[in-house]
Amino acid sequence: MPERGERPGEFGMIARYLRPLADDPGAFGLTDDAALLRPEPGFDLVLTKDMVAAGVHFFPDDPPESIARKALRVNLSDLAAKGATPIGYLLGLALPADWTEDWMAGFSAGLAEDQRRYGILLLGGDTVKSPDGLMLSVTALGQVPAGSIVRRAGAAIGDVIVVSGTIGDAALGLRLRLGTLDGSAAGEGASHLLDRYLHPQPRLGLAEAVRSFASASLDISDGLIGDLGHITRTSGVSAVVEAARVPLSDAARALISADPTAFASIVTGGDDYEILTTMPEARFAAYQAAADRAGIPVAVIGRIVEGQGPPVVTDAQGNAISLGRSSHDHF
Amino acid sequence: MPERGERPGEFGMIARYLRPLADDPGAFGLTDDAALLRPEPGFDLVLTKDMVAAGVHFFPDDPPESIARKALRVNLSDLAAKGATPIGYLLGLALPADWTEDWMAGFSAGLAEDQRRYGILLLGGDTVKSPDGLMLSVTALGQVPAGSIVRRAGAAIGDVIVVSGTIGDAALGLRLRLGTLDGSAAGEGASHLLDRYLHPQPRLGLAEAVRSFASASLDISDGLIGDLGHITRTSGVSAVVEAARVPLSDAARALISADPTAFASIVTGGDDYEILTTMPEARFAAYQAAADRAGIPVAVIGRIVEGQGPPVVTDAQGNAISLGRSSHDHF
């Protein structure tokens, strides 16, 4: 194993760990100032940028493979929600002074595996010394047939509200990591929750169906209710979510049975990276069929209604449930 | 003036300070997950990403207007060097916990002024809490007529080496800031050097001429000799630079007269953000005429030669000058 003193400098590190990720001809082997992208005629480009910082979005001692994947996947999740097919990404990497070759090897391997999984390549980026902790800034590029991006604005009164997968797993996993929730009721399911926090699953398999059927769409990163509020606010409407229809994993269900107050974490906690869409009810069957073909479960959880207020979550009697704060604030 | 306790949260901050910068329809007023860019037919996109961190690339107490400009301009400088016209940018902003509204107002004003100056708009980005100091990640997008990007690779034996502006001012300015150089010989010129460090001038006025005439091009960020080495290495050639032909400001000239060892800082110190190009000698007159029309001085400083070694700087007798380390390493 190389000693600390034998670490390569900036250019050596790029050549060893990042250049192998940059096979795209427009990346110029990461030896130029900029990357080149020849847009495909008839497509719009979709651009998204998410930063993640140690101690804020991940734990400094998380495996480097997992940190790499999380930084990449939260961006791919944005593309999926907009109906876009990913093209590639630029990576900004601010490394603390004590980085090791082992760490970079793991980080690079995590990126390489996800590049294969999602069919994308590293186009370019920048590496700098971080005065403090690790910080990553990914800019991901995708494309949609011209004019077909799906926005947050667009939800119409009467539309059904649809989510993919299960909600709240990552928020519960984070609480288990932080020790603010007792996970014993979940048994071995606790590891599922921890994994959902560490490894978001961007729902790229839904992108085409989102484009075809959704009136509005985003990915849930700030919490179901907070993100639904982004849709309703930009669309000039309000929403009602039926608590009992929010899809839960077995582990999440077990934890709620033991501690009903955990439900608030599920719908406000964030980090789901599931796709939240609205659409006319008549389109849902076709959306669900397309999601089935992609192997991704989707479920109706409520309805868009007239109004200007924030989304309301109702119990089985139709009464509003109080959830405390409704959204994750990154500040 | 608002008290610390009245600061807006993330969404309020974005609405107040960043949304006014995002007039582009594809930015969706920064209310969506992603930005949309409809590429202009017949053009290639040029993508560049530079991160800057407090304590590494700028001083934490630099004016927020200046920090904003530097983060943006170092990216625009890359575009200019590639021959590209800027389109817009995405901003990643990791704010320390003690940010103030005054700071954000200054930061935002600096961006707004440069957006007008360079004809670009904010397209999107991300704001996160920084666990430590301020960090900025800008991804800038530009375009070139398809196939016309100018790369680092492309310098041919016999080409002249050309730089814009004056070299070394920012490196001397940084040394004055750090107190490692006595600036008294420069008199009032010291403020010019300090300003050159704080406010890079991206040479966008040269972009078209670079496209038309240069065989290879980059912007000088790591130091003249180190960056020239990037050109020679990717081009498979070597280079000779005549020290006496490197264009200097009056202030830099005064400092070298007082302390000849400062010359090494000038050619290796970095942060110039001038354009370093190579081209067949026969094209230089036309390049210079185009640069004149843009109001930007350009000068031949040497020649591309056969070989694989790093660039050599020669004195008036043609003897190689020893410069110590030849490039700034960000690590």
Automatic annotation (TrEMBL), chains A, B:
<keyword id="KW-0418">Kinase</keyword>
<dbReference type="Pfam" id="PF00586">
    <property type="entry name" value="AIRS"/>
</dbReference>
<feature type="binding site">
    <location>
        <position position="126"/>
    </location>
    <ligand>
        <name>Mg(2+) 1</name>
    </ligand>
</feature>
<feature type="binding site">
    <location>
        <position position="50"/>
    </location>
    <ligand>
        <name>Mg(2+) 1</name>
    </ligand>
</feature>
<feature type="binding site">
    <location>
        <position position="50"/>
    </location>
    <ligand>
        <name>Mg(2+) 2</name>
    </ligand>
</feature>
<comment type="pathway">
    <text>Cofactor biosynthesis; thiamine diphosphate biosynthesis; thiamine diphosphate from thiamine phosphate: step 1/1.</text>
</comment>
<dbReference type="InterPro" id="IPR036921">
    <property type="entry name" value="PurM-like_N_sf"/>
</dbReference>
<dbReference type="InterPro" id="IPR036676">
    <property type="entry name" value="PurM-like_C_sf"/>
</dbReference>
<feature type="binding site">
    <location>
        <begin position="125"/>
        <end position="126"/>
    </location>
    <ligand>
        <name>ATP</name>
    </ligand>
</feature>
<feature type="binding site">
    <location>
        <position position="221"/>
    </location>
    <ligand>
        <name>ATP</name>
    </ligand>
</feature>
<feature type="domain" description="PurM-like N-terminal">
    <location>
        <begin position="32"/>
        <end position="144"/>
    </location>
</feature>
<feature type="binding site">
    <location>
        <position position="48"/>
    </location>
    <ligand>
        <name>Mg(2+) 4</name>
    </ligand>
</feature>
<feature type="binding site">
    <location>
        <position position="33"/>
    </location>
    <ligand>
        <name>Mg(2+) 4</name>
    </ligand>
</feature>
<feature type="binding site">
    <location>
        <position position="78"/>
    </location>
    <ligand>
        <name>Mg(2+) 3</name>
    </ligand>
</feature>
<feature type="binding site">
    <location>
        <position position="57"/>
    </location>
    <ligand>
        <name>substrate</name>
    </ligand>
</feature>
<feature type="binding site">
    <location>
        <position position="222"/>
    </location>
    <ligand>
        <name>Mg(2+) 5</name>
    </ligand>
</feature>
<feature type="binding site">
    <location>
        <position position="219"/>
    </location>
    <ligand>
        <name>Mg(2+) 3</name>
    </ligand>
</feature>
<comment type="function">
    <text>Catalyzes the ATP-dependent phosphorylation of thiamine-monophosphate (TMP) to form thiamine-pyrophosphate (TPP), the active form of vitamin B1.</text>
</comment>
<feature type="binding site">
    <location>
        <position position="152"/>
    </location>
    <ligand>
        <name>ATP</name>
    </ligand>
</feature>
<keyword id="KW-0460">Magnesium</keyword>
<dbReference type="InterPro" id="IPR010918">
    <property type="entry name" value="PurM-like_C_dom"/>
</dbReference>
<protein>
    <recommendedName>
        <fullName>Thiamine-monophosphate kinase</fullName>
        <ecNumber>2.7.4.16</ecNumber>
    </recommendedName>
</protein>
<keyword id="KW-0784">Thiamine biosynthesis</keyword>
<feature type="domain" description="PurM-like C-terminal">
    <location>
        <begin position="157"/>
        <end position="310"/>
    </location>
</feature>
<dbReference type="InterPro" id="IPR016188">
    <property type="entry name" value="PurM-like_N"/>
</dbReference>
<feature type="binding site">
    <location>
        <position position="78"/>
    </location>
    <ligand>
        <name>Mg(2+) 4</name>
    </ligand>
</feature>
<keyword id="KW-0067">ATP-binding</keyword>
<feature type="binding site">
    <location>
        <position position="78"/>
    </location>
    <ligand>
        <name>Mg(2+) 2</name>
    </ligand>
</feature>
<keyword id="KW-0808">Transferase</keyword>
<dbReference type="Pfam" id="PF02769">
    <property type="entry name" value="AIRS_C"/>
</dbReference>
<dbReference type="GO" id="GO:0009030">
    <property type="term" value="F:thiamine-phosphate kinase activity"/>
</dbReference>
<feature type="binding site">
    <location>
        <position position="271"/>
    </location>
    <ligand>
        <name>substrate</name>
    </ligand>
</feature>
<keyword id="KW-0479">Metal-binding</keyword>
<comment type="similarity">
    <text>Belongs to the thiamine-monophosphate kinase family.</text>
</comment>
<keyword id="KW-0547">Nucleotide-binding</keyword>
<feature type="binding site">
    <location>
        <position position="33"/>
    </location>
    <ligand>
        <name>Mg(2+) 3</name>
    </ligand>
</feature>
<dbReference type="InterPro" id="IPR006283">
    <property type="entry name" value="ThiL-like"/>
</dbReference>
